[in-house]
Amino acid sequence: MRLTFFVRILIVLESSNQMATLLIVDDDNLVRETLHELLSASHECHTSDGAEQTLHSKLDTPMRKFFMHCTTRTYAMFVLIFVVCLSSTSRSSVASALAAREPSTLSQQSAPGVEGNWRGALDVGAFKLRLVLKIAKSADGKLTATVDSLDQNAKDLVVDSITLQDGALNFEMKALGASYAGTLSKDGSQLSGKFTQGGAVFPLDFTRVTDVSQMELKRPQTPKKPYPYKEEEVSYENKQDQVKLAATLTLPPGDGPFPAVVLITGSGPQDRNESLLSHQPFLVLADYLTRRGIAVLRADDRGMGGTSKGGPNDTTENYAADALAGVEFLKTRKEINVKQIGLIGHSEGGMAAPMAATKSNDVAFIVLMAGPGIQGEKLLTKQIGLIAAAECEKEVEHAITEGQQLMVTVVQEKDDAVARQKLHEGAVKRTEAAKKKIDAQLASADAQNAAWATPWFRYFISYDPKPTLMKVRVPVLAINGEKDLQVPAKEDLEGIEEALKAAGNKDYKIVLLPNLNHLFQTTKTGAPSEYAQIEETLAPIVLQTIGDWITAHTHAN
Hints:
By secondary structure, the chain is of the alpha+beta class. It is 34% helix and 24% strand. The protein has 3 domains: 155 residues, no CATH class; 116 residues, Lipocalin (Beta Barrel); 237 residues, Alpha/Beta hydrolase fold, catalytic domain (Rossmann fold, 3-Layer(aba) Sandwich).
């Protein structure tokens, strides 16, 4: 069991649809092999001569139902989108990985200058995971170390062994199935090497840092204790699936009874705060609502934190059942108004909330934050194109900048021979950077493509939310960000409204929020690569919209 990176491989297709292939092909091994060969072909497309011919020969096999066009002169018509979270194979290992805080002190040969703090970025495609390596020397001269993954909000991950021999630095993190092999620069300011995890190899360089501010990310909305309300660690059980859920219940001051909500996270295993890239949206949301007189229950997903593991065939229906287990728990609390318990679901959670509402009369209302309103296959196909377009736009901007730099070199350098040499050196650097990036993408994707060949993913892309939405009889608030590229706002809000209207639901509100992305942050383009760079966790208008609507429906103080 190990901490890994859950990978969503989203490929822009020119003449076929990979979703259909996943639905048709039930052999998981065949699907994984197909993904592997497609990615390998893409890698050759970017790194070898005769790329177009190589690619088409690679794809020309009986099982190849994935098609794409790629030349060395155009931007490749595919993009690998990596969503950072913990994979299903790693759920039960997180607690032990984070709990083992005492670093090992194995014997090693130390070299001057390696102690201190180092910062690097693990390039996993659309995101770069920022890491801090902290190396110290004990009284007996032995090296110890820990690692912080800033974007995953994981601190003091244990390094079991670390050695420095003749400038070669090696360390191992057994709980994560990871290791690093690098070389210390002569001046002691750089570490250059490779990070290996689960068979995947990623380039990873560290730079020494002395500024403490570079060792943490700014997240100004994250609430700080003490809170002006009660916070209680609780647990309850989904008896149907025999899953024990660990959660946090926040209660406003006073005796109550209070209206309450159960929060439902989005896709992939997440903790109760829906932590992503050092943001904690559900912590921010729970804090805001509780201050407004609304009790909030938020639980770790299956296999995360203190929640027990689920099964290999779990789908969104199982997660909806977990939410209903939370409703049943709230009904046992004297502080809660049992007639005013609602659900708030984000992304896939916005798919689970209507499911739960149609199966229980105890759900008084639901809030859908970027909840799907169209079939999963159509949603993801649209998502692919939108994200690819946004990332391509950035590539164009980068290419223009590089072109301008080339022009400056030519104009400023009057010696033709020297100018040619500088231009050549620049071309070499760009080529090496491109190969390095593609190698990292291929390694990560190849290690994690099994995420596609699962019952959960097949269920997700097959599911049409409209029939379920047409059965919802309770009040509904559906909100989405205008620049959401993962759940396209226009199509999904229209789908939700169409279903509710057709069902005769008179109490619903549809809200399109300008300039917000899928995480409901204020954004420029909406591209996932911006998520980590934005300091804002949830735009204030999102909090106010949800808070005002719930208050109006429950008369919360």
